[in-house]
Amino acid sequence: MKIYGIPNCNTVKKTLDWFRLHEIDFNFHDFKKLGVDQLKLEEWSEHLGWEALLNKRGTTWKMLSPEIQNSITSKDSAFKLMQEKVSVIKRPVIETGSGSVLLGFNEEQLGDLLIKLKRNIK
Active-site residues: which are they? Predict the structure, then answer.
């Protein structure tokens, strides 16, 4: 299980706390320190779509000029921006280890994941 995000993001904190509370082992990848590569963005995009990865509700997006915002019209332009400004990636991104990818904090999805994990342990 791998969680990608920014440690001071409230949604990431909530997710990490949820994983700790439920005693689920995970590795944390800090976007700010480690960045994100093109291959990882491609992989996530296959599961979620590039549009879902782009956080247009966040401060980073809102601080971009209208020209830059309007120029993000394709996967390539979005990925370039995401690599330059990692804070524009919706977070957290959770790789479940079973081939699926979850985006954001969704307690129902995480509960389903917990059920699957418990089934695999038995």
Answer: 9
CATH for 22: 3.40.30.10
What is the spatial distance between Cα 57 and Cα 36, in angstroms, rounded to a whole number? 20
Q: Report the number of distinct structural domains present in the chain.
A: 1
In eight-state DSSP terms, residue 29 is E
Q: How far is CA 59 from CA 83, 107, 116, in A?
A: 16, 24, 35
Predicted structure pTM score? 0.92
Nearest to 109 by CA among 19, 9, 10, 8: 19
For the residues 44-54, what does the mean pLDDT come to?
96
User: Domain of 47?
Assistant: 2-121
Place of tokens 């976007």: 31
Tokens for 67?
């020209």
Residue 113 clears pLDDT 90, i.e. is over it: no
